[in-house]
Amino acid sequence: EKGGYDHFMLKEIYEQPKSIADCLRGRLDAKSGRLVLGGLRDYMNKFQNAERIIITACGTSWHAGLVAEYLFEEFARVPVEVEYASEFRYRNPVVGEKDFVIAISQSGETADTLAAIELAKSKGATIFGVCNVVGSSIPRTTHAGSYTHAGPEIGVASTKAFTAQISVLAMMALKLGYQRGTLPESKYIQLLHELEAIPGKVEQALKTNDAIKYIAEEYKNVRNALYLGRGYNFPVALEGALKLKEISYIHAEGYPAAEMKHGPIALIDEEMPVFFIATKDSSYEKVVSNIQEVKARKGKVIAVVTEGDTQVKAIADHVIEVPATHEAFAPLVAVVPLQLLSYHIAVMRGCNVDQPRNLAKSVTVE
Ligand code: F6R
Q1: What is the set of active-site residues?
Q2: Which of 364, 336, 340 is nearest to 353 (CA)?
Q3: Which residues form ligand 1's pocket by a CB distance below 6 Å?
Q4: pLDDT single digits (tens) 121-144
Q5: How much is the ipTM here?
Q6: Which among 104, 158, 342, 357 is the best mutation to test ligand 1's pocket, defined by most ligand atoms within 8 Å of the CB?
Q7: Domain SIS: where (predicted)?
Q8: Could you point out which of 23, 71, 177, 271 has its C-alpha 20 to 30 Å from the C-alpha of 54?
Q9: DSSP string across 324-348
Q10: At what angle do helices 234-248 and 330-348 cross, to 10 degrees?
Q11: What is the pTM of this model?
């Protein structure tokens, strides 16, 4: 049932071109400008008139929520807050009828996320679920929702669920921006085409596998790693670090690249690998400066870059090239090499990648 792969995690990483396409199928058709999310139909009014969007989730799903914050604010100009469900539920949050709450969960069973939903619901907010497991507890508790349709995710480390979550959230953001008039039609159509092209670009990104194995061999024995990115790629840095720590047990931290000089830079020496997500986007030049700062302190730089990049290539120790896309969708492509990297490092270290120690697929206790 692993379909010829050694582990479910690797199978699920490789399924992403298909799982993202499955998620978009029947919902998005760029040519006709069609974008329909069945779950939103009855709640479009609430969504469109919401004064604020609150996103609540845990772990990797929370990282997808952070990407969504950038998407919703850029395209729909609605204020967004992204909350760890465990914090939200216990801090007597300010939430009410004008809030549209999006709860993201692969399993649909996470105890803290469920409790956060119950709380927001009791205060009159509208609750929308973005879940993978059909018929699980969260979709039964929310007012409405959209399934991610990624198929069963068995590896404990979330991979294809993450990219499917971002795909649903991206469709929601484009729809909302279009409906609210903050996203002009021509730009909207262009973005629909970009999103539709993502499965093919993820397929391309998977071809970095051999190069990544080589990098994994070189860094498999490190004790620490830093992951840095800006803008849409900041949550990708967090996700890259989480993937590495949870399956390889290497200590890793993700940061917005600019925060480096406020502390983490002290960690950098010749032993320290720093993984940059440095795709061509509006913060590219700034990221290049951050890479130079790391190199000046003799850190090792491994960078995910856009195909054809020359600037980062000239200074980094290793680059991993992924296809160009609109920066808003870069996380869907850029996360793939980081998933592969964690996978290979964990396998080389003899770790149980599908069932890392101390972790469970569904966290049904708080
Ligand atoms: C990381 C991971 C966890 C989950 C988190 C939330 O790879 O799998 O961080 O993302 O426990 O789980 P769900 O999405 O099922 O609510």
Answers
A1: 361
A2: 340
A3: 58-61, 105-107, 110, 113, 157-158, 242, 246, 362-363
A4: 999 999 999 999 999 999 999 999
A5: 0.99
A6: 158
A7: 43-182, 215-356
A8: 23
A9: ---GGGHHHHHHHHHHHHHHHHHHH
A10: 20
A11: 0.98
